[in-house]
Design goal:
Layout lengths: L1 E2 L2 E4 L3 H12 L4 E4 L6 H6 L1 H18 L15 H22 L5 E4 L4 E4 L2 E4 L2 E4 L2 E4 L3 E3 L15 H5 L7 E5 L3 H13 L2 E5 L11 H14 L2 E3 L3 E5 L3 E5 L5 E5 L2 E4 L3 E3 L5 H4 L3 E2 L3 E2 L12 E3 L10 H16 L12 E3 L5 E5 L2 H6 L5 E6 L4 H5 L5 E7 L5 E8 L2 H13 L4 H5 L10 H8 L1
Parallel strand pairs: 1-7, 2-3, 2-8, 3-4, 8-20, 10-11, 10-16, 11-12
Antiparallel strand pairs: 5-6, 6-7, 9-17, 13-14, 14-15, 18-19, 21-22, 22-25, 23-24, 24-25
Bound molecules: nicotinamide-adenine-dinucleotide.
Nicotinamide-adenine-dinucleotide (NAD) binds next to helix 6, strand 13 and strand 21.
Length: 445
């Protein structure tokens, strides 16, 4: 039996961050990873899609080349080079994680760990025990339950990232974060993209006005959307759905991507540890990420709370702080997020829709990329930002789409953590000319 201070199951952003932070704080760590280091985020999520998104951004800029005085440009698109660059980015970051985990306090076991009981896990016939265990097992793509069996190939986001050829046509089921990012990327690559979404609008967590503008922007770029449409079958020809008028429609496509959400990754062996979990909602945790067995924590996608890499990392810090008895003031209620489409979208806190639904008194202030000097100089005039505040002026949220909106939203997150008012924001000097002035302009209205 190997004894240690802390056992961590899973080396994604939650797990490796927990290991690094525990080791820095003097704990001896054993971390298990059955697959590739870095989890979904590094291998088949955030990083590869952002690598593709950069290619897409360059292609879009080239399409506007005449605006920059580059006439009659010609280029050949080499998809294999796109894949090669993505793989290089991943492998460079993966070796960074391996270096991080080479700390003398950390033992990395590249094998699948299973609970034997509430204090012991087993991997490759060896038993390990610790007073504290962190479950960071991540998530898996969800699939639709359809009446007819599906006989053709249907891709999930990992499969789409490992295609070795560019499909001529792609039908994406789901206009959530994954669906929209891939729609934007593959459309820029030259694939004919159709998106089928069950709800009235794409990206339900985003302010509906902004989501609509972003969708219209992608439509203008060539993506076809079918909203309020229920997929009923996936056949050899493509995706069959009932549209909003009740008409049965088939979208023919070379490839089909299923992007209808992700589910926490849970295992039957969790029963042996005796904490509560379900396949749908993941491992049940309290506000300190403790499971119903208080010495076992669950962080990241596995607890189904906020399926974002940065949420997983901060949950890791909070769980380890609990273990070492250190208090922190991490605000999990202020969780910024971004959608890396062209143009980008991002949000934090309340939207105007949510305020109306919940009867929250608010003021809404808007500003536009087209009125910003830097945006025009960059030829990025499309975008809108909505700043939501209480009647007393405290900032409650901000939703935006437009070039680099994630960076603007990050500033709002920092201000919200410090209970900043709109008036105080208006008085913070912003560098001219920058896109951040869009935020200041909203505050000034
Ligand atoms: P999602 O929950 O964001 O979106 C799924 C979409 O599928 C929803 O709009 C939903 O209405 C739609 N849908 C569900 N059933 C459908 C049906 N039968 N027919 C048509 N549409 C249907 O899920 P996702 O896009 O798969 O992303 C999964 C997770 O990964 C999310 O939690 C997301 O936050 C995370 N993620 C984040 C980022 C980022 O932060 N940039 C990027 C990728 C993924």
């Amino acid at each position: 039996m190997t004894q240690t201070d802390i056992i961590i199951i899973g080396a994604g952003p939650g797990g490796y961050r927990a290991a690094e932070y525990s080791a820095k704080n003097g704990l001896k760590v054993v971390i298990f990873e059955a697959d590739r280091m870095g989890g979904t985020c590094l291998n088949v999520g955030c990083i590869p899609t952002k690598s593709f998104a950069r290619n897409a951004e360059i292609i879009q800029t080239l399409k506007d080349s005449e605006a920059f005085g580059l006439n009659d440009l010609e280029y050949q698109f080499d998809f294999h080079k796109v894949i090669q660059r993505k793989d290089e980015v991943i492998s460079s970051l993966r070796s960074g994680i391996e270096t991080l985990l080479s700390h003398p306090n950390i033992t990395l076991v590249k094998a699948e760990a299973q609970f034997r009981d509430a204090h012991t896990v087993t991997a490759e016939g060896e038993n390990y025990t610790a007073p504290h265990i962190i479950v960071a097992t991540g998530s898996v793509p969800k699939t639709l339950r359809l009446e007819q069996p599906v006989r053709r190939r249907v891709l999930d986001s990992s499969d789409l990232l490992s295609l070795d050829h560019l499909p001529q046509s792609l039908c994406i089921i789901g206009a959530g974060v994954i669906g929209m990012e891939f729609a934007s990327i593959f459309n820029a690559f030259g694939t004919q993209v159709t998106v089928v979404e069950f709800l009235k609008e794409c990206l339900p967590m985003l302010d509906s006005d902004i989501a609509k503008r972003l969708r219209k922007s992608l439509e203008k770029q060539g993506v076809t959307f079918h909203l309020q449409s229920r997929v009923t079958a996936i056949t050899d020809e493509g995706v069959v759905f009932t549209d909003k008028k009740g008409k049965v429609v088939t979208v023919e496509a070379e490839e089909v991507l299923m992007a209808v959400g992700r589910a926490p990754r849970v295992f039957d062996h969790f029963n042996r540890a005796g904490f509560d979990y379900s396949e749908r909602t993941g491992v049940a945790v309290d506000e300190h990420l403790q499971t119903t067995q208080p010495h076992i924590y669950a962080i990241g996608d596995a607890n189904g709370r906020q399926m974002l890499a940065h949420a997983a990392e901060m949950q890791a810090i909070h769980a380890v702080n609990q273990i070492i008895g250190k208090s922190d003031d991490i605000r999990f209620d202020i969780m910024p997020s971004a959608i890396f489409t062209l143009p980008e979208a991002a949000c934090v806190g309340l939207s105007e829709d949510r305020c109306k639904e919940q009867g929250i008194d608010h003021v809404c202030k808007k500003s536009f990329w087209r009125a910003n000097g830097k945006a025009l100089a960059m030829n990025e005039s499309e975008g809108m930002l909505k700043l939501i505040a209480s009647p007393q002026g405290e900032i409650l949220g901000c939703h935006a789409y437009g070039s680099h909106s994630a960076d603007l939203i990050q500033e709002v997150s920092a201000l919200m953590c410090r209970h900043t008012t709109v008036e105080q924001l208006a008085h913070i000097i912003h560098i001219h000319p920058t896109l951040s002035e869009i935020l200041q302009s909203a505050a000034e209205t």
